[in-house]
């Protein structure tokens, strides 16, 4: 292998290393952004959990009454189609849920 070819090979390797260094810097920045976002989300989750502890719990019968009202208004309350409009009459899934 002659000196010129060896020099070209080293120069190409140096260029690839430079490109990898730039790519590594970009990845490092993205990781930093993700860590910061994760930290913000964890803080928000804690804040929401603390706020949720202060909310009054609805009575079970009150929740069932609300679901029954929603069903009577023509919406699904079953886990299959929850919230969508009932267009084909009664839904056996919803009815079985109401009668539990």
TrEMBL record:
This is Initiation-control protein. GO terms for biological process: DNA replication; negative regulation of DNA replication. It holds the Pfam family YabA. Keywords: Coiled coil, Cytoplasm, DNA replication, DNA replication inhibitor, Metal-binding, Zinc. The lineage of its organism: Bacteria, Bacillati, Bacillota, Bacilli, Bacillales. Residues 10-54 form a coiled coil. GO terms for molecular function: metal ion binding. The keyword Protease does not apply.
